[in-house]
UniProtKB/TrEMBL annotation:
InterPro entries tied to this protein: Lipid/polyisoprenoid-bd_YceI (IPR007372), TTHA0802/YceI-like_sf (IPR036761)
A Pfam family: YceI
Organism annotation: Prauserella alba
Occurrences of domain Lipid/polyisoprenoid-binding YceI-like (ranges): 14-178
Domain of life (superkingdom): Bacteria
Assigned protein family: Belongs to the UPF0312 family.
Protein name, as recorded: YceI family protein
Coiled-coil spans in chain: none
SUPFAM superfamilies: YceI-like
SMART domains: YceI
Length: 181
């Protein structure tokens, strides 16, 4: 019996990420004492579920300039060439290289391209499940995933000491995708 047949309602197919019902967020420390949270508001992607979940793939693109941290001055600074440099690097992207089951969840291995640098990353993922969508006959899938990266590995704000802005950045994804017809 494949892992897919053990997942209630599992459907093999191509799914489009629904940005209205999804979030791409991040958290980092500021001055070592507090957390700054933000999100990217413009993103798109595709999930392809294979006959077996290990044959599935994920691809996503995020518009770097869509960053929102609830502070316009900070957003402008993060978009500048001192951090994300959205003029030179307008997008972040992720492409999976493998998916594997681990205990109660999954790990999505892949490559993250940020600030023109591509590095391997692994996302710890929980499958929210498969279900009926809002439109008649539509199907949806939900996935939560998280990882932690070092911004310096991608050349982001390397000149800023970690006492000001932490090197570690937690990334959290809450994704709902709709089955393509």
């Amino acid at each position: 019996m494949s892992a897919a047949t053990q997942i209630p309602g599992y459907i093999a197919g191509t799914w489009t990420i629904d940005p209205v019902h999804s979030e791409v967020t991040f958290i980092t420390r500021h001055l070592g004492v507090s957390k700054v949270r933000g999100q990217f508001t413009d993103f798109e992607g595709t999930i392809v579920t294979g006959e077996d979940i290990s044959g599935s793939t994920v691809e996503a693109t995020i518009q770097a300039g869509s960053i929102h941290t609830k502070n316009d001055q900070r957003d402008a600074h993060v978009k500048s060439d001192e951090f994300l440099d959205v003029e030179r690097f307008p997008t972040l992207s992720f492409r999976s290289t493998g998916i594997r089951a681990t205990g109660d969840g999954y790990v999505i291995d892949g490559e993250l391209t940020l600030h023109g640098v591509t590095k391997p990353v692994s996302l710890e993922a929980d499958l929210g499940g498969f279900g009926d969508g809002m439109a008649e006959g539509s199907k949806v899938v939900g996935v939560e995933a998280r990882t932690e990266i070092n911004r310096s590995d991608f050349g982001v704000a390397s000149q800023f000491p970690t006492a000001v802005v932490a090197d570690k950045v937690k990334i959290e994804l809450d994704i709902e995708a709709v089955l393509d017809n």
